[in-house]
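During the second year of the project, the team shifted from modelling isolated chains to modelling whole assemblies. The rationale, set out in the original proposal, was that interfaces cannot be judged from single-chain predictions alone. As a representative example for this report, we include one of the complexes processed in the last quarter. Its constituent sequences, exactly as entered into the pipeline, are reproduced here:
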Amino acid sequence: MGQDNSRRDFLRKGLATTAFAMLATSQADAMSLQIPGRDEKNPKYIGQKGKHFVMVLDLRKCIGCQACTSVCKIENEVPEDQFRTFVTETELGEFPDVRKGFLPQLCNHCESPACVPVCPTGATFKREDGIVVVDNTVCWGCGYCISACPYDKRYFNKRTKTADKCNFCAQRVDKGLLPACVETCIGGARVFGDINDKNSDVYKLVSNFSTNVLKEAQGTRPQVFYINLDSRLEELSSSTQSLDDIVKAEEGFQREWMKARGGKDNG
Amino acid sequence: MQSSRRKFLIGSGAVVAAASVAGYKETLGAVATLSNKGELAKDSIYFNSPNAEYSYLNDEFVPNDEFKISATTCIGCTTQCGVRVKIDKKTDKVVRVLGNPYNLLSTDPWLPYNISIKDSYKLLSQSGKFETYRSNVCARGNVIFDKIEAKNRVLKPLKRVGKRGENKWKEMDIDELISEIVNGGDLFGEGNVKGLKDIRDTKTPINPDEPIFGPKSNGLCLIGTTHEGRFKTVIHRFLKSFGTSNFMGHTSICGLSMRAGEAAYLGNFKKYPHLKPDFENTEYLLSIGTPPGQAGNPFKRQGKLLARARTEKNIDYTIVSPMQGNSDTIAVGGRSHWIPIIPGTDLAFVMGVLQIIINNNLYNDKYLRIPSEKGRAALKDASWTNSSHLVIQDKKGFGKILRDGKVPLVLDASDNALKSSNAVTQAVLDFKGDVEFNGQTYSVRTAFNELKENVNELSLEEYSKECGVSVEKMQEVAKDFTSHGRKASVDCHGGTMHTTGFYTTYAVMMLGAMVGNLNYKGGMSPGGGAYKDYVGKKYNLFGYKGKSKVHATRIDKTRMAYEKTNEYKKKVAAGKNPYPAKDTWYPFTNALESEVIMNSAKGYPYKLDCLLAFNTNFMYGTAGGENHIKELISDPKKSIPLFIAVDPFISETTKYADYIIPDSVLHETWGAVHAWAGYQTKINTLRFPVTKPRQDSFKNGDSIEMISFMIALGKKMKLPGFGKKALKGQDGTWYPLEKAEDIYLRVFENIALDGKPVPDASDEDIELSGIESYVPSLKSICGNNWRKTAYVMARGGRYQDIEHSYNGDFISHRYKKPVQVYNETVGMKRNSITGERYSGTIKFYKQRMVNGDTFEKLFSKDKFPLTAFSFKSNVLATPDTSSAKLKEIKYTTYVDLNPKTAEKFGLAHGDYVKVTSGDGETKGFLRLRHGVHPQTIGVEQGAGRRGEGAVDVEINGKLVKGDIAKRSGVFYNKIGLLDPSRPTALTTDFVCGSNVRQAIPVNIEKIKYTKEV
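Output from the structure prediction step:
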């Protein structure tokens, strides 16, 4: 199968593929740098004033159950075979000295997002409360942001044909609720809140524990913080392939899926 | 595009970046030429996400009128967590599932019961106490509601039109269907089929030679699933009314060896209680083959409590298992340990650890010397054992405990005198010799003495050789386990589904007796129990006039000793050796659904006339079923002349049915359930349709499902307990049973009234929990109590508050019977094949067939160098295959192998392989992982399906295609073994009869991939 078995560490993603396949669209209004919603100070474009939302992932509490992966697809109607968040399940070391490593991943809502400056239309931007969003009425699907993201956390939405990614469930957060992945996290590893609030759980966790972000060297200043992150997990997160994809290809699953979608190859 | 994708898929990691660049360039090129617009999202920023169900901003709570949110029970797996379902009012479709914050299976700590529904939402918001009361749903529960709309769902009653198993059906009217199954006749053009009215002969013996077997009405057998909230109703209301003793769930293919072993330890084969660690407070957890967080029951609760204990508390845990499960994570450093072990050798490991504990006096001597409840109370302990009780060794009375009347006798440690155990607080623990009682000399030994002798049967080195775990490791575990006082706990579950699982479980639990962990905070608990439901303050819903009191021999030969049969008695009378019996008997097992089809085919104890399958899938779930039961079930003449299934899907099992009656799915169903174990307070979780069932209805408007079908059938047959005066009030009033709600709203009412009745639900509670549509029924059925019943429904059940969990260092809901270091029931019974006595306490056995032939002898290492096991999936579950969405979360399963073993066998990651046992084979793709023992093959259970949408089905001449995704993966149970020492039978736990899926000797080889259909 052409697999590289020489790696000491085995990663069994079994889930989201980091692959993305892109087909661009040209939407009529896509060339404008004006974002009507933002210009009109619509709250969902501006965010919650004075707040700065972050997520802390306490890896000691992650049991790799994929409840977050699952609920995100439902809450955000993420298209088939695409994911806004997922948890990689990794083995570190060799038998019998082997350990499990789980790495929940999502958009890092970076302070200096690599995706924003490359957007030719201004469709992707950071709200005042720190949430990086995509305006899908403005996005024309060029894919620059998808390539620019060092974390591979953007994808080309098969249905809307625009860039898409985690937006911390802004539709819930803007109503005073929590992101779905946080709500459903069984171990309580995902903690969300306003880091400007000194009474918030996220502030306390970040203050009391030493935390890491992914690919710090990129200078993007992620706002998703990890407690007890083993650096080997980070290396693996973007350098693997999914055995599932090989099986799907062998079994003809992709073709069946395309047929069900009316024979169109959307990705 | 296609080529770059292909390159990415088979390339190594480095190719990922290259593929990205290629994709990027192509996009640039494509922009100018493509004008293909996508679908417009619902919202510019929120994309297609549904609106939030409410908002809570600036202290203002505003519900969203688009949705209703109702509390119910998820039945996506056997944990049965309380959830809240968000439903679009316009379409009546489920939009999302949320945890129910009142329910301890989804939340910990859970909300105080008296919190209003409105406040429950406020508390779960950003400005509430979200981090305290976070309530969740697992990967399954979050997505499987698409089953409700599944294209392959059975919505109308079906009758087969081809031969059995051909999967060709025609839809039919439910009343006609009921007429056919009641009256029988030449239903399929294959000759006469006996109908239910003729089967129901409650007078004529089913076997004239064995009157003890009961009447012919036992020709009806029901195989159900887990206790999913309707099973008890069907047993008590329908089957007992019909007059059959044949009803069984799914335990013998699930975790029966664990249940039976724990029932032995706890001395209760009637209720089959079992224990779970107090995960939150335990300081040392030794789990044999069941990593919390990977699976187990309660799945979420265990995972949650473990995550908290290892992060915020003081737990150290060791998982002894062929596979490293998800309870491990590098993020917790040295708190988590894995001891890899060969499947089926866990008994050797535990015996070794026990030997170290006993021979080095590491056990809690004072605890084990407590001989009675009085002694326990005097010493203020939380539990006690029978370790000092005296077991008679004389030929006469061998195995019995020496008693004065009902009270066991013990030797008082202070003066070595024989006394009533009630008069002693500390007894002699280790004794073998003669005692005199009432002028008679008895040769006796203490239970502890027998235990000690048995654990010393093999040397430590021999135990170590059996299980592959070093003596040093066992010593380390023994020391750690006994270094935490009562706050050390043990667990085991499905890993014990091998031939010696009963004694393995008993031994694992025995570790607990060594430290006295039962009923202690941080130790073991039997669960917090439940409020009274079916039989409660207002109604006795199991009681009705004419309920049969049939005590018959069950088709699975459980609950009865062979020695009671005429077969035995005749042989003895003729001076013959009564052993072997024609086949096995199981005197202290509750039910064995995995034996039913073969027993009926063998006509031993008798032949069945009709099988009623209720949401069961024994063909997929039974190891060996596919290869060895298929032939018997597909020919109506061989085993089951009439096969009726109640199931929302056509499964590997129901495809052999003659008729399929549709059933409700998930959030459409009725039910009332308890929790398993692993909790300390009372809990009842309820289910009622929160979305209208999609299938056809009866003429009275009730949707066709198990309960309404039972009612219709009961009324058609004029069985007692149906129709007008059917449901019994405790005050002697009778109520009608016409619809499912007639029973279930009354069950809920009983729950509401138990003990101190719950408060009345407010109008706001009712509105915010979306149960307004039930108000008319509630008023007419529950009368004055309707608001109390509504209070329970609004919260999806009734839950005792968390502060009732503990009483000082004790668990509040204590298990009151003594721990059985020696189980007299077991010690007095014999194996009906060999005539050997079962050991009354734990004893080492190698993997064996019922007659004692060892696997070692039957399966040479040359031919079968590896040992196979299956493990529970944290995502997939057998009844959830019909969810297409779940397959997006986990597409497939693999044959898991250690890379070192793969190298030896010349196999590579991604190879297509065949795994062969002595009696079957299965195929799949190979996944290499360091987290499996090198001498094993592991398979995640739940994929490789051939039912529930995986295969083509023809209904009314129209083809419904099966999906590749549902077929994908490894069908593990195809490698199940036969027991050559029995007439046509699958391999079983030689004591309690569980179906053996673990520790199967196998070989593996690479083969060319061919598509399987």
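Residues 582 and 833 of chain B are 8 Å apart (CA to CA). DSSP finds 32 helices and 42 strands in chain B.
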